[in-house]
Design goal:
0% strand, 204 residues, 9 helices, mainly alpha, DNA-binding, homodimer
DNA sequence: CCGGGAGTGTTGACGATGTCAACATACAGC
DNA sequence: GCTGTATGTTGACATCGTCAACACTCCCGG
């Protein structure tokens, strides 16, 4: 073995904790993650996780940050999977963003639910979110250059787009959207509306 | 006394619990609300709240629902405060929505944070949120008739607008928006972008 | 007027949970 | 092989939500 993370008694408990916590979140929500429960599922004692994470919050923050990384990778695939010429691609990224949330509701909730995590700043989590945001900014800048969307502050535009997608994902996850049957249609309409508002056009 | 809620020993503990819980949420977040703490602050025992609310969740749900009511009233003021002729009014409603969230971050978080509240359906909370949504639908319908915005499914359009506003509020509250200095400008840009995407126009 | 019942509040207790200190074990490098 | 450190375990404690048993207060019917 001799991984860089170490593999003493258990054999890389740190990675196992991250995976098991993510699994438990998917099964029963973040509230179901208990130091005792996760230890039991991994065959270690309740205090074992404290050798790898300062406290329960640190573990959850790490899981949440991993979620941001996964989401970013998924969007990156779309970003590089087609030419940046058409705003169509930006639209697909938005759709993929919401789809990730719909497929991983509890994980997504954890990523954005600061209340459950901390009242202090958790740099690890902030950085992961910022990386995602910067990716979006870069795509928007590219589309500004190609003339697809208005040449405003790209960061502000990125916040607007992010807000719309995150809001839709959040409302859906919390059960506030009753158009249960056609979430895909709603996702499309949301991306189209926002992009239309960002597009270059003659009138007005 | 002889209120409809009763005023026996304490003198309307139920109302006091709601008010005190809201105050504690504003001061220290929803996590700081403890049955023991709230009892102590009101000079009653830790079990006294259980005579008025089935459990802690029920209390928090009631507080959250009250938040939806307050928010709805606030938007209603704008809705009725000016003629519905201009979409300008819809824009102001959106801005007011986000402003409410920014001014009451912990309360807003509670309103939308299902995780902290329940895994079952809480009809009281759902109904309060739906009432808010229906208000938005009605305003949008009015603007469709006056020709300001596209004649699409008004509910779908309401979801889009709600998503954008809620998303912006949520991102801001969770500290993901670093343009700390000019939140008002960002709010304005968000409402304008979404409304532009919903507007009737010649091109395209 | 008064006695009982319902509404309201209190106390004691229990199980679950996060966390720490003290202790035990196993691996790595000398 | 020995020693130190990384890793894991156990016991304990404080806090929390919640319930059962009890106590008090008010109102209403006789």
């Amino acid at each position: 073995m001799t991984d860089e993370t170490g593999a003493y008694h258990h054999g890389d408990l740190r990675a196992a904790l991250l995976a098991e916590a993510a699994a438990m979140i998917a099964e029963g929500g973040a509230a179901s993650v208990t130091m005792r429960a996760i230890g039991q599922r991994l065959g270690v004692s309740r205090a074992a996780p404290y050798r790898h994470f300062a406290d329960k919050t640190a573990l959850l923050v790490a899981v949440a940050a991993a979620g941001f990384d996964r989401l970013k990778s998924r969007l990156q695939t779309i970003d590089t999977g087609a030419p940046r010429s058409s705003v169509e691609q930006l639209r697909r990224m938005g759709e993929e963003y919401v789809r990730f949330a719909v497929e991983n509701p509890a994980h997504y909730r954890l990523m954005y639910g600061k209340e459950a995590l901390t009242r202090q700043d958790r740099p690890e989590l902030s950085e992961a979110a910022i990386a995602l945001f910067e990716q979006l900014v870069s795509v928007i800048q590219a589309h500004q250059k190609s003339g697809g969307i208005k040449r405003q502050d790209p960061r502000a535009q990125a916040y607007v787009a992010w807000s719309a997608m995150h809001g839709l994902a959040s409302l859906w996850i919390e059960g506030h959207i009753l158009a249960t049957d056609d979430i895909d249609g709603l996702i499309r309409q949301t991306t189209r509306t926002v992009l239309d508002g960002m597009r270059v056009r003659r009138s007005r």
